[in-house]
Amino acid sequence: MKRVASGFLPMLAVDRKLGQPLHRQIYEAFRSAIVEGRLRPGQRIPSSRVLALEIGVSRFPVLNAYAQLLAEGYLESRVGAGTVVSSSLPEQPKMTTSADIKMPAGSRRPRRVANRCSLIPKNEKAPWMAHRGAFRVGQVAIDEFPLSVWSSLISRESRNLNTESAHYGDFAGEPSLRRAIANYLKISRSVRCEAEQVLIVNGSQQALEITARVLLNAGDKVWIEEPSYPLARNVFRVNECQLVGIPVDDKGLNVGIGIKRCRRARAAFVSPSHQFPLGVTMSASRRLQLIDWAQKSGAWIFEDD
Fold first, then answer.
1. Taking the model in full, what pTM does it have?
2. CA proximity to 246, closest of 262, 264, 229
3. Looking at the structure, do residues 213 and 297 belong to the same domain, yes or no?
4. How many CB atoms lie within 10 A of CB 239?
5. Which domain, by its residues, includes 183?
6. C-beta separation of 40 from 2 below 8 A
7. Are both 58 and 28 inside the same structural domain?
């Protein structure tokens, strides 16, 4: 069997029962894929022979469709690379928004995202996160990372895959990893913790989202450091909580001001070990004061470590 290396084939089907000619159906399918971004500039498309074979038509409709796409600037031919999506696409007419559509009386409204999405600010970016370079937020010390050890471990585990590893694992995460984390927390942080209490997630943002959904209700008031991690604010906003900004000084979150502003808050979000973005460490007295407030008021403490 001869294998043909074709380019990207979009979801394309022709219907001979339609009044629209076959070459027009092929043209519209490719044009839509290009305009909508499903086909990227420089991306190779199948040869006319391969495409005709795939969709069960003669080459003539495909050749006609390709010729029109080439003439209009959606495709371009490259020596040695075949036909690809053009790197400079023609201007498109302005997209009509839902606000521009006049809906007839009694008709259904267009589908929209959930109302709570409007609670998230558009393009929110804190000043301290805008800069680039060696001191940008979240920069990893690559020179300190054991790349060779990591690579060898990945290679070793990849060679030892079995049928069990292809199935869904424990919903809370790999048990051996959770046991290792629990043991590490006992030694390094003196945290009394068992593997059953550890949940592996994709990152701190998902952890915060899950925790907020489980512990908080719409309308609950939450202490949040001022300034603080902006994406944490978004999690509480989308869960319809009321944020109460509490200032941070050289000792961390000012618990006394928090109690004065909102003693009955449902939760407090803190980063005591290394406050973001100021970098201060919460003092021991403040930590004890925060715990005492939480115990007396029945509030939760969300710690971002």
1. 0.60
2. 262
3. yes
4. 19
5. 171-200
6. no
7. yes
Token output for 3: 């294998």
Cα(first)–Cα(last) distance of the chain, in Å?
Answer: 58
CA dist 271 and 303 (Å) reads 6
209 and 189 share a domain?
A: no
Measured CA angle at 232 (ends 229, 238), to 5 deg: 145
What is the identity of the amino acid at 77? S
Phi, psi dihedrals of residue 101, rounded to the nearest 5°? -85, 125
Residue 29 lies in a domain: yes
- Chain segment 223-273, per-residue pLDDT in tens: 999 999 888 999 999 999 999 999 999 999 999 999 999 999 999 999 999
CATH of the domain at 73: 1.10.10.10
Paired with 78 in beta bridges are 82
